[in-house]
Amino acid sequence: MNRTGTVIEKGEEEKVAVYRDPQGVLYTLNPACRHMGCTVSWNDAEKTWDCPCHGSRYNARGEVIYSPAVYGLLEKRIRGQDKKTIFVH
Known about the structure:
Layout: E1 4-10, E2 14-20, E3 26-29, E4 41-43, E5 48-50, E6 57-59, E7 64-66, E8 80-81, E9 86-87
Antiparallel strand pairs: 1-2, 2-3, 4-5, 5-6, 6-7, 8-9
C-alpha cells in the first residue's frame, strides 16, 4: 500500500488532514498550522504536511520537522470510517 495524504473539506469550516501509512494505519489531523493557522497541504514528494504561509513543515504524523511552528498538528477525531470512506463530524 502506498503512503498518501490529503486534506478533506466538508463545507467551508470543516477540514481534516488524512494520511494512511504503508501498514494501512489512518492518521487524522487538524490541518491548521500551529504557527498562525494557515491550512497545510500534502507534499507527496517529501511525504510531509507543508504550510504555504510561513514554511512550517510536519511529518506525515503531524510532528514538527521545520519551524517556525513549535507544536505538532493536533489529532482530529472522526466519526468513523469504512475501507474507502471517512466520515467527518
